[in-house]
Amino acid sequence: MHARVIFLKRLSKNYWLLQLTKPEGLNFKAGQYISLKVHPDGHRRSYSLSDPPSSSHMNLLADVSPMGLGSKYILSLHPGSLVDFIGPLGKFIKTSDGLFLAGGSGIAPFLSMRAGPILWSLHRKSEVFDTGLNPLIFYTRDFLTQYLKSIQDLKNYHIYLCGSRPYVSGMTKLLISLGVISTQLHAEKFV
Ligand SMILES: Cc1cc2nc3c(=O)[nH]c(=O)nc-3n(C[C@H](O)[C@H](O)[C@H](O)COP(=O)(O)OP(=O)(O)OC[C@H]3O[C@@H](n4cnc5c(N)ncnc54)[C@H](O)[C@@H]3O)c2cc1C
């Protein structure tokens, strides 16, 4: 499938919003992603759709700090560029209310879901941008751990986790150490 770039906008130090046209007939569920062709050799990178399915366009939220093929491709785009993609893909769908834990760009599917409350882990203040929602922002793991420990009924929540592989693995271990069981956890790893 193809889409055209409407605009590319810098949101903070490493975060960019890429807005694409939405091909007619394309329907997605909040939490799904598309796979972009980022190199003529056929290399692909996945990006979650970050606006609600009812939107007339497709928004992607890209963290370009890895600066690999995907990041460089996104930064090379300009209004009118044609983007080759496959999708929508994925099964990271919200099936219940709960607690939403995002590492960095892992907030993207939660924005599409209009989910809340979101606990958002970022490395630096320079990475923050206005999400249109109201996430609780954490810069250190210690503060996040203290916050999670303060939730009395954590065992009763469905917990949705999204971010890099180390983030999801680290948070899974932490949550299990706090008494959460695996059936409460729903995770998407940005590998
Ligand atoms: C289902 C799915 C959905 C995704 N959705 C998004 C999204 O909405 N927004 C988004 O920005 N990314 C998303 N990703 C990740 C994205 O596909 C790329 O992998 C990522 O942006 C890095 O691409 P790159 O080509 O620039 O770097 P790569 O060439 O893949 O990596 C360059 C270097 O950076 C490291 N690296 C890669 N990713 C990270 C990271 N997150 N943190 C730290 N180091 C890293 C790699 O190990 C490597 O050493 C998603 C991934 C998956 C699987």
- Taking pLDDT < 50 over at least 5 consecutive residues as the criterion, the unreliable ranges are none
Percent strand: 25-35%
| Helix-residue proportion | 10-25%
Give the termini distance in whole angstroms.
Answer: 23 Å
- Sequence of secondary-structure elements: EEEEEHEEHEEHEHE
Strand order of the biggest β-sheet = 4-3-6-1-2-5
CATH class of the largest domain: Alpha Beta
User: What gross morphology would you assign?
Assistant: globular
Number of helices, counting only DSSP H or I runs of 4 residues or more: 4
The CATH homologous superfamily name of the largest domain equals: Nucleotide-binding domain of ferredoxin-NADP reductase (FNR) module
- Gyration radius over CA: 17 Å
Category by helix and strand content: alpha/beta
Per CATH, which architecture of the largest domain?
A: 3-Layer(aba) Sandwich
Question: Average pLDDT value?
Answer: 96
Ligands bound here?
A: flavin-adenine dinucleotide
User: What is CATH's topology name of the largest domain?
Assistant: Rossmann fold
For the biggest sheet, the summary is: 6 strands, antiparallel
In total, how many beta strands? 11
Structural domain tally? 2
Pfam families: FAD_binding_6
Organism: Candidatus Amesbacteria bacterium RIFCSPHIGHO2_01_FULL_48_32b
Protein name: FAD-binding FR-type domain-containing protein
Domain FAD-binding FR-type: 1-95
